[in-house]
Amino acid sequence: MKKELRVGVVGCGAIGKEHVKRLTEVVPETRVTAVSDYFEEAANQVAKEYGAKAYTDSYALINSDDVDAVLVTSTDDTHAQFVMECLKIGKYVFCEKPLALTQEECVAMMEAEQKWGKRLVQVGFMRRYDRGYVEMKKAFDDGEVGEALMMHCAHRVMSEAPGFQTDYAITRVAIHEIDICRWLLNQEYEEVQVLKVKQSRRTMGDWLNPQLVMLTTKDGQRIDVEVQSDGAYAYDIQCQIVGEDGTLNLPDPAFVTKRSGRGFEHNLEKSWIYRFIEAYDVELKAWAQDVLNGQLTGPSTWDGYAACVASDALILSRKTGKPEKINMIEKPEIYK
Ligand code: NAP
């Protein structure tokens, strides 16, 4: 008989709705049986559209017998509490990034997870499922450009929701590069820094923009990440590994190009939703299959923790104006 994974989704905002649709239409292994949101109307509306049960109490959803695994897509500040609730009862949970607001919360999660003797948590670092990044990693791991010397990255965003703050450029935006660069290079970070740069007149609120994020790996590779958290001309993601024997570039543009009498043209994306739409599909399909097989292989609690430690050090560096060391606990066995 076909195995089915009954999923409960916590948070019916922008990405929550996208993921409910994705789990229903793209992932054959899953059925969304429950959805929750603080805002009752949001939960009711999604529940009605997809034939799920609506909750306003997300703890009740997590503990429901109709939910085999949980997807957390609520606001950043709520992630840790819901992941911990899942870990309390041993339920698989997929949590959108960031895993938590503090590294201490991530350590507590790792302690709780280890008691079950296996991984239960996956973090939503979907770029690891993007075709371009996957091909870059394979080429790098196959030694096609030799040892990596440095990386150059850009993360340019057109606009952010009201209430955006300077720190969010790290914890919500650059967090993707923090994760993908350590994944691509198979490295942890030694030291990080935020450098002050000329500010854009197109910044829409009272926050620093752009910011230049510098990451140094344990092997001494330097990574520069230009972060434009709003006001950019498009949603534009760039990534280059400079190796001793060559360079590897994330496909740019990511989509079809046109050559005509008018010249060489291509569109630029406006939003993360479309740029990474296939990566999200692959990510959730892989997660569902892994849960059904009882063995997670995607980004782990350790990866969520590593991103949190780097984010904290970057925010501190912006305040001190100096590079800040990365201090991590020893990696527990189940994440090796
Ligand atoms: P959003 O539109 O604000 O959605 C969050 C939803 O969660 C809102 O409907 C909110 O309800 C609800 N919520 C807040 N507290 C809750 C609680 N205690 N219980 C249940 N629901 C609660 O935000 P979003 O853009 O979808 O982002 C959601 C999360 O996904 C964020 O953590 C974000 O970082 C992450 N994300 C990841 C990616 C990625 O590339 N991987 C992309 C986008 C977003 P109210 O409106 O009533 O507060």
* Poorly predicted tracts of residues: none
End-to-end Cα distance, whole Å, is 34 Å
Approximately what portion of the residues adopt beta-strand conformation? 15-25%
Order of helices and strands: EHEHEHEHEHEHEHEEEEEEEHHHE
Structural class: alpha/beta
From the spread of the alpha carbons, the general shape counts as globular
Q: What percent of residues adopt helix (DSSP H or I)?
A: 25-40%
> Strand arrangement, largest sheet?
12-11-7-10-9-8-15
Radius of gyration: 20 Å
- Bound compounds, please? NADP nicotinamide-adenine-dinucleotide phosphate
Mean model confidence by pLDDT: 96
- Oligomeric state of the chains? single chain
The major sheet is characterized as: 7 strands, mixed
- Total of helices: 10
Number of strands: 15
Topology summary:
Layout lengths: L4 E6 L3 H12 L4 E7 L3 H11 L2 E3 L2 H6 L5 E4 L6 H11 L2 E4 L7 H12 L6 E3 L7 H11 L6 E9 L11 H18 L3 E7 L15 E7 L4 E7 L7 E8 L3 E3 L8 E3 L2 E3 L6 H4 L1 H17 L7 H20 L3 E2 L11
Parallel strand pairs: 1-2, 1-4, 2-3, 4-5, 5-6, 7-10
Antiparallel strand pairs: 7-11, 8-9, 8-15, 9-10, 11-12, 13-14
Helix pairs in contact: 4-5, 5-10, 6-7, 7-10
The site of NADP nicotinamide-adenine-dinucleotide phosphate has 24 residues, from helix 1.
